[in-house]
Specification:
single chain, alpha/beta, Rossmann fold, 6-stranded mixed β-sheet, 6 strands
Length: 138
């Protein structure tokens, strides 16, 4: 399995957000998701759902969540496995990032993604071949 780009949960949240102040980011996230094939992980989908339900101000409905899951079904979704967790521990130690962030990086690496779209990492940082781009920067 491989994909060129990996999306973090914040991209999915902005793509689904109905908050007026998120319009620019919503448009960018939706365009990004339509531009090219992307990959996700089960962890990213879990984070998306948890935050969509918790952050009521985003106005993400159950229908929005279902639509995102239908879209996710058309992409590669990597399960969280013991091997992925072991790789994440190594990444966490090497790069001094949180375990959750390390698991996202490990998933992107396992899928052969060259780009990780996220606003939660340092824009332009490279994690052994996975370059982070903040799609909302600039």
């Amino acid at each position: 399995m491989s994909a060129e780009a990996f999306l973090d949960a914040n991209v999915l949240l902005y793509a689904s957000s109905n908050a007026a102040e998120d319009k620019v980011k919503r448009d960018r996230a939706q365009a990004l998701m339509m531009e090219a094939p992307f990959a996700l992980s089960a962890q990213v989908l879990q984070e998306y759902i948890a935050n969509a339900l918790r952050k009521k101000q985003l106005g993400i409905s159950e229908a929005n969540i279902e639509a995102m899951l239908e879209l996710a079904a058309t992409s590669i979704v990597l399960p969280v496995t013991l091997e992925l967790i072991i790789a994440a521990v190594r990444i966490r130690r090497r790069f001094q990032v949180s375990h959750w962030d390390a698991t996202i990086i490990a998933a992107a690496q396992e899928l052969g993604c060259s780009t990780l779209y996220s606003e939660d990492f340092n824009h332009g940082q490279n994690f052994d071949g996975v370059r982070v781009l903040d799609p909302f920067k600039g």
